[in-house]
Design a protein that fits this description.
single chain; about 450 residues; 17 helices; 11 strands
């Protein structure tokens, strides 16, 4: 279906999902090629561990089988997981000739639509990335910092004093408001209030709902039909915003991303896909990263005090160190996936062409062989040292498919950090670290990063 309008989108999401067919492939080793060892448990059990608890499953398999092992995961099939630094870099930074991303990420097309940069490779990917990248140039983002500060301050004023609440939930709301204002350019309060929950529904899927990507026929049934109705409603609102912006005679003077995406008069469906891609890639990652940042800081009073001491310094390097250390010890993007187009050496095995390979970014971020025996410690000071192993730091992936919004996310985290600390004094609900759990593809604090506002400040 091409160029849908607001009136035709009622079946668009359903048709997109019903038309997607997962493909399970099994690489067939040729002479001289081999797949690494892996667990012999049922594929269904392996799939449950991968999709629901890879943050504990991958380290356990690495400890048992080494830096390279084989898993069987529905709906993909056989997956080689690599955890060694050079292999992770080879896969994550590899070009589209050897490690295209499209097939591994094809399921995103069912949720987002075709032509999403998440599932394109080669010339198509370069062209689409070129269209979107200007929105994330440093100078363009700097122009919207004031809006980020304003929205963060407004959010903080909603936080109750003296009672615990989930910081994850509040950061999700804030990230959505930033997207509505900065990406969509919506300043009308009523429209913004309608868009935020609708857009949230586009990225918030339970594991149960995601089963429709394994069995598309589920799209006709109760809970899955309701999820698709939510997608349709959000599509309607997005198309209305696209129409409204097209008709704005002053849109070339606007700083929001939507106005920029309309340059060159692309069709509505391309713009809708680009907006949903930015939403899917930016909202949840920013919210989780910011939540983990405070979860770590509130349990390390020395680091928190040092951040507070530098709040008036606009170029304080320690804030950047805190952000980097958060992304190292609590990686939001746990792994990246590719499919090899030719035989490739990984972990001492010549892996056959057609093999799906997942590079564990978390593994190299937490490898004591790289970072030292204090690898598990939250120590931002390591980023101010001259010999920091930056080659082993890939929080947003790498290569041609590095996250489009990486710079945006860093700036947003920095703005949130200093704005929150200027307005409130926070305390964690308990001294113990919050465990990491997986929700779909994201790693988040198990209890929602629960905090309490001790008092409001004058900032």
């Amino acid at each position: 279906m091409s160029n849908p309008t607001a009136t035709s989108l009622r079946t668009y999401a359903r048709d997109r999902i019903m038309g997607w067919r997962p493909t399970i492939r099994h690489a067939a080793p040729q002479p001289g090629e081999a797949l690494p060892p892996g667990p012999r448990t049922l594929g269904a059990l392996q799939s449950m561990r991968v999709w629901g608890a890879r943050n504990t499953y991958f380290p356990a398999m690495q400890q048992r089988y080494g830096d390279t092992f084989l898993l069987r995961v529905t709906p993909i099939g056989q997956i080689v997981v690599v955890c060694g630094l050079e292999d992770v870099r080879k896969v994550a930074l590899g070009g589209p000739d050897l490690f295209p991303i499209g097939e591994n990420n094809s399921m995103f097309e069912a949720l987002i639509g075709k032509r999403t940069v998440l599932s394109l490779d080669g010339a198509e990917h370069r062209a689409e990335r070129k269209r979107i990248m200007p929105a994330f140039h440093g100078e363009r983002i700097a122009a919207v910092v004031t809006a980020m500060e304003e929205l963060t301050a407004q959010e903080v004023m909603r936080w109750p004093i003296g009672s615990d609440f989930s910081l994850v939930e509040r950061m999700q709301e804030l990230a959505l408001r930033v997207i509505v204002r900065v990406v969509l350019g919506v300043e009308d309060r009523a429209r913004a209030e309608a868009l935020a929950p609708a857009l949230r529904r586009m990225v918030d899927y339970s594991n149960l709902e995601l089963l429709m990507l394994v069995w598309p026929q589920l799209a006709r049934l109760g809970p899955w039909r309701k999820a698709i109705a939510g997608l349709d409603h959000a599509d309607d609102l997005l198309c209305a915003e696209i129409d409204r912006r097209r008709a704005d005679p002053d849109r070339h003077q606007r700083a929001d991303v939507l106005s920029m995406l309309l340059d060159g008069d692309p069709d509505d469906e391309l713009v809708r896909v680009e907006l949903v891609t930015l939403l899917a890639g930016g909202q949840e990652t920013s919210a989780m990263a910011a939540s983990w940042m405070f979860e770590r800081l509130l349990r390390h009073p020395g680091a928190l005090a040092r951040v507070r001491a530098g709040l008036d310094d606009p170029k304080d390097e320690y804030r950047t160190a805190v952000i980097n250390e958060t992304l190292r010890v609590r990686p939001v993007v746990y792994n990246v996936g590719r499919r090899a187009t030719a035989p490739v050496e990984l972990g001492g095995y010549r892996v056959p062409a057609g093999t799906f390979v997942w590079a564990s970014l978390a593994a190299i971020h937490r490898d004591p062989r790289i970072w030292g025996e204090d690898v598990e410690e939250f120590r931002p000071e390591r980023w101010l040292e001259p010999d920091v192993p930056s080659r082993a730091f890939l929080p947003w992936g790498g290569g041609a498919h590095r996250c489009l919004g990486a710079t945006f996310a860093h700036i947003e985290m920095e703005v949130i950090l200093r704005t929150v600390l200027r307005h409130v004094e926070l305390r964690a609900d308990q001294a113990a670290d919050e465990p990491m759990v997986m929700r779909n593809i994201f790693a988040l604090p198990k209890h929602g990063a629960r905090v309490r506002v001790e008092r409001r400040l004058g900032g």
